[in-house]
Amino acid sequence: MAVGTVLVTGGTGYIGSFTALTLLEHGYDVVIVDNLYNSSRVAVDRIELICGKRPLFYEADVTDEAALDAVFAKNPAIDSVIHFAALKAVGESGEIPLEYYRVNVGGSIALLRSMTKHNVTNIVFSSSATVYGDATRFPNMIPIPETCPLGPTNTYGRTKVMIETVITDHIEAQRNNNKKAGQPYEQWNAALLRYFNPCGAHPSGIMGEDPQGVPYNLLPLLGKVATGERDKLLVFGTDYASKDGTAIRDYIHVCDLAAGHLSALSYLRDKKPGVRAWNLGSGRGSTVLEIIQAFSKVVGRDLPYEVAERRQGDVLDLTAHPALANEELGWKTQLTMEDACKDLWRWVENNPKGYRQDPPAELLEALKAKRAE
Ligand SMILES: NC(=O)c1ccc[n+]([C@@H]2O[C@H](COP(=O)([O-])OP(=O)(O)OC[C@H]3O[C@@H](n4cnc5c(N)ncnc54)[C@H](O)[C@@H]3O)[C@@H](O)[C@H]2O)c1
Question: In which element (H, E) is residue 44 found?
């Protein structure tokens, strides 16, 4: 008997697929909804290869409320949702803002409406550290605690703040309305998880980030420089007030991040807290040059880079104060940025075509041997 059944939107994407895997490994049943806009259904096969269990998969759009209704109707055991499905390119969000608001905010509203019709009352939401914007505008806000005032500096970040607000208003209204009507209300709960910089891949080397277009995150781009698919990395801004002039981020291994979702979901189910926001980060900041150095070390040679102008909307330092998640959720990062570099390189080196190729036989053999242990 499953611990619970979770609908994972965006579950064939990078973080969603790792979270679906972790849920299955911990006794949950998983139903994925994804429109494959930025992912491949091969992720479902890889999840099964690693853990021996297969999530149910529906190709559907989160903005399509009727399609979501049909998924909930067919799977009445679903009791919680982890909501990843979104557009996430910061630069693009400034070019096509209506599309970002339609998919990210509109999709979240359709999901909440459908959940409510089907009495599904727990939601864990993928928010982002970008909701804080430039935390150096306040004294003593680095590392960033959840109490730091929000102030996103780009459209993508503004969609995340809006969704956090919509979820908060809806969950609070459900609790208040039920309370007034003398009905149980504590079942309505939400976790707003503000991720810092997710990175890395599965240690087996057969599952990792496989975006459909050009990646824009630092480590996947470095991966492409290492395989020769790109000539060099562009470093945006070397005049920040950091030790080497480049921007500081808090890199969190995707396996740790996935585990954080499980901890948050358990907290909602056990403690029924209403709406809570938690930072998911390591608390350790690394500059862009430090990441280039760490990844170059794993690859075994210096990777070329070129300095470019700062990007609009970028901020100096996004490093998490993770104490609240550490204490309340009993969750803490176990892996380092260096571990993430190693795992990423194992994935990229062995699967230069991502999910458009079969994984190397020796990695599959090693996985089989590990599973037989
Ligand atoms: N990767 C990061 O750096 C990062 C940081 C903070 C927050 N997040 C958030 O985490 C979530 C997952 O990010 P990711 O890095 O795994 O990205 P991703 O693009 O790999 O995953 C998102 C998934 O959502 C799907 N999707 C997009 N639009 C959809 C729609 N209309 N209907 C159904 N599915 C749709 C995509 O196909 C993809 O599989 C996103 O909400 C993102 O904003 C990511």
Answer: helix 42-51
Q: For 58, phi and psi rounded to 5 degrees?
A: -120, 125
Q: Which two tokens stand for residue 359?
A: 């994984």
212 pLDDT above the threshold of 90: no
Count of H helices and E strands in the chain?
13, 14
Pocket, ligand 1, Cβ cutoff 6 A: 10, 12-16, 34-39, 61-63, 84-88, 103, 107, 126, 128, 195, 197-198, 217
Task: Identify whether 156 is a catalytic site residue.
Answer: yes
pLDDT tens-digit series, residues 314-364: 899 999 999 999 999 999 999 999 999 999 999 999 999 999 999 999 999
- In eight-state DSSP terms, residue 135 is G
User: Given pLDDT bands bounded at 50, 70 and 90, which one contains residue 76?
Assistant: very high
How far is the C-alpha of 129 from the C-alpha of 281, rounded, in Å?
A: 9
| Residue spans per domain, the chain | 5-200+251-283+317-334+357-372
Q: What is the pTM of this model?
A: 0.98
CATH superfamily for 5-200+251-283+317-334+357-372 is: NAD(P)-binding Rossmann-like Domain (3.40.50.720)
